[in-house]
Write a structure and sequence with these properties.
two-stranded antiparallel sheet, 6 helices, mainly alpha, two-stranded antiparallel ribbon
Length: 254
């Protein structure tokens, strides 16, 4: 009996949803941020929700990275089966690199909030978003070689469009709104502070992007549902301790 790999992205997505709602509810209850369309990053600025933000976020980053890496490794077997060209395997290698960069950026993003070092926080966020989008687009390109259902590549295409739109809205309107802001409290914006609607549009873009990232785990779980890791089993074949031998069945995908 083995371990089903699709459990990992399911747990990853569940942690992300629970973490977001927990931090959002706690932050709004304590009055640390606006309850209407706040930035994701502004949710984890103050204690105690900043601790939850770091714990949930780091755990999600680790599991999401493992999920995407396992997906790449498993898809190699599928590509070998259908006789895909070398370019497909090169794309897998590039996607693995983007997975590692995205995961490390996510950990940095959740470890340093915008109040401590906004430049680093924003840089980690942009790096994470861009390399996640690269991985998503790469998986969409590989669908032409993988024998998947039509709804899988359509879902990936929809998530890609949502991610691109979200990233564009987030970056552009945040850039436009910053010079217009004249208020004193960045986390409780008012219409008269300037740039209010631009900030709200940027926040919508960030929520779209984060929603697409979390939803991507569901597609990974569907793709990995046929892959299982068989744990090594040890058998003693001789009662003579000096001459005993063991047979170890190695780990593999089934």
């Amino acid at each position: 009996m083995g371990f089903r790999l699709n459990i990992i992205p399911l747990i990853s997505g569940g942690i992300a949803v629970c973490g977001l709602f927990s931090v959002y509810e706690l932050s709004c209850t304590l009055g640390h941020t606006d309850s209407l369309w706040p930035y994701i990053s502004s949710l984890g600025v103050y204690a105690p929700e900043s601790c939850l933000f770091t714990w949930f976020g780091s755990l999600y980053a680790i599991l999401a990275t493992i999920s995407q890496w396992l997906w790449c490794s498993c898809m190699v077997h599928s590509l070998l089966t259908v006789g895909a060209p070398v370019s497909a395997f090169l794309l897998i290698v590039f996607m693995k690199i983007s997975t590692v960069v995205c995961g490390l950026s996510l950990i940095g993003l959740f470890s340093i909030n915008m109040e401590e070092a906004n430049f680093l926080h924003y840089g980690f966020g942009m790096t994470c978003f861009v390399f996640y989008l690269i991985h998503l687009a790469g998986s969409l390109c590989l669908q032409r070689y993988l024998q998947s259902s039509d709804w899988l590549w359509i879902s990936r295409a929809v998530l890609t469009v949502i991610s691109i739109c979200g990233l564009t809205l987030f970056v552009y309107f945040n850039y436009v709104a910053l010079p217009l802001f004249t208020g004193e409290d960045y986390y409780h914006r008012r219409v008269e502070d300037g740039g209010y609607y631009e900030f709200m549009t940027s926040a919508v873009g960030e929520w779209l992007l984060v929603t697409a990232m979390v939803s991507y785990n569901a597609l990974l779980a569907v793709d990995l549902q046929g892959f299982v890791i068989d744990f090594p089993t040890v058998y003693q074949t001789s009662s003579n301790m000096e001459l005993s031998s063991v047979e170890i069945r190695s780990m593999g995908f089934a």
